[in-house]
Amino acid sequence: MRALVAGEAGEPSDVLRLESRPVPTPETGQALIRVHATPIHASDLHVLRGRYGFAPEFPTVGGHMECVGRVAALGPDTEGRKIGERVVAAALPAVPGPPMAGTWQEYLAIDTRRLLTVPDHLSDSDACQLAVNPLTALLLVTHELDVQPGEWLLQTAAGSTVGRLVIQLARHLGIRTINVVRRRDAVEEIKALGGDEVICTEDENLLQRVAEIAGSAGVRKAIDCVAGQVGAQVSQALAPGGELVVYGALSTHRQTDPAALTIPLQARSVIYETKTVRGFWLNRWFGTASPEEALRALSQVRGLVADGVLSIPQGRPFPLEHFPEAVALAEAPARDSKPLFVFEDDREGDNG
What are the backbone dihedrals phi and psi of residue 113, each rounded to the nearest 5 degrees, phi first? Predict the structure, then answer.
């Protein structure tokens, strides 16, 4: 079978190589998945650079969070799954045993407790993106901040995939959103998507606009994916007692120095206005949630996508052979679709 492998930590375009590997043999409690599609997340690339929240052992197959495929075989004495069943494989660290193998390969042996059945009418593009961005949006809004109908939710990076999903989910739940973008040409697009208010930092003052929009009651809940000065301004813009959950650091996207990953908070604002700033990392949530809780949340996301409440942008398919182009697209500014590695159904796995 074909697999995209990094021999060492470094820039993905430099360290990734297409290799031929034996098809793995599933052990007891495992299923062999014939992978159909798997996304390229920015976090996947940060893992290969060695700047993410965990480091794999090299050489390693790329991709670490999600894919969609069908059960091709079951390990000895393994029950609960059927050959041919269409499933999403998700990195659930709460499941005992070794972490999920990389998904950028044609076949994947995985613990059956990491699998979620998905209906055939859900596209491969939607199914292979269920376990990261839509789940992050759901958890941020409901689990982390418990935003109630009628409340304001302030978010940065509103044009990102998670930002767009937050807007859709907020509309469904009756939550009002204030959406921060960097470019003026993104404003109308965010409004058309359902964002109630949009602030463009290119030519608007974030603090002033939040005060004008929310009035004396202010905004008490916010999520940030930018960090740096923008994250600090969001914290400052919150009403006393407000909460900010930080889930990304786009302002330091290509930095490798950990000292560059900062949010310069104002001590007076945090102390005297008793504001809370905390982080959210989906991998850590998976690690603290039980497998049953994680699968319930994934099932909820599956329902929201299947019912059309959440619309995941259509991915752009690439064969593994075109990985340099796919990796470049994954981090291209203002891209309109996420690159996906796709595998032909009629390709037979080999042993070389």
Answer: -75, -10
Confidence of residue 258 (pLDDT cuts 50, 70, 90): low
pTM > 0.70: yes or no: yes
What pLDDT band is residue 348 in, cutting at 50, 70 and 90? very low
Answer for the pair 259, 238: CB distance below 8 angstroms, yes or no: no
Read off the amino acid at residue 65.
M
Three-state secondary structure call for residue 87 = strand
Walk me through the domains of the chain, giving residue ranges and CATH numbers.
2-129+312-342 (3.90.180.10), 133-280 (3.40.50.720)
Q: Which two tokens stand for residue 182?
A: 């960097």
First to last CA, the chain: 7
Query: C-alpha 48: how far from its chain's center?
Result: 16
List the one residue out of 9, 3, 164, 133 whose CA is nearest residue 66. 133
User: Residue 175 pLDDT > 90, yes or no?
Assistant: yes
Q: What is residue 294's predicted lDDT score, i.e. its pLDDT?
A: 87
- Identify the DSSP state of 144: I
